[in-house]
Specification:
7 helices, 9% strand, four-stranded mixed sheet, alpha+beta
């Protein structure tokens, strides 16, 4: 089963992240393990962020919750999550320049899925223009939800 076929099915964040890691390793020959996914309510113009030097990717809970109300198709929703997680995963691999990372994500999506694909479309478009209903105020708070079973193939450290 190819990656696009997998994205057509209901997937957990951890399952999508495993695809991200496999695709990035295939195209860049880079890999990192031991990341944790946190959900936080943020303004909807923020997809996610990676605190430099950490083991966390923080995904915008408000955005993905609202997005789920607009998108019922699994391929479209999973492709969106895939691109956001790939962007932050590249930051975790020490690529910090935003413009360069956006271009890298678009290039990887183009090579892996093609220019007519949803992953490439999500990698190269502004989601607030594509889904204008997302551009609404959100009550932000400083609380995080930890997603269990995110980095599924990481080995625990044994000291």
């Amino acid at each position: 089963m190819n990656y696009e076929e997998k994205l057509r099915n209901k997937m957990s964040f951890g399952e999508i992240f495993e695809l991200v890691k496999a695709i990035v390793e295939k195209h860049l020959k880079l890999h990192r393990a031991g990341l944790t996914l946190l959900l936080e309510n943020l303004p909807t113009y923020v997809g996610a962020y990676y605190p430099e030097g950490s083991n966390y990717i923080v995904l915008n809970k408000a955005l993905i919750t609202k997005l789920r109300n607009f998108i019922k198709d699994e391929l479209e929703y999973n492709s969106f999550i895939l691109m956001i997680l790939m962007h932050e995963y590249l930051h975790s691999l020490s690529f910090y320049n935003e413009k360069e990372v956006r271009l890298m994500v678009a290039e990887i999506a183009k090579k892996e899925f093609g220019e007519e694909s949803l992953p490439y479309e999500h990698a190269t478009s502004n989601w607030l223009k594509k889904y204008p209903g997302l551009n609404v105020p959100v009550r932000t708070e400083n609380s995080f939800e930890v997603i269990r079973e995110f980095d599924l193939n990481s080995q625990p450290y044994i000291g």
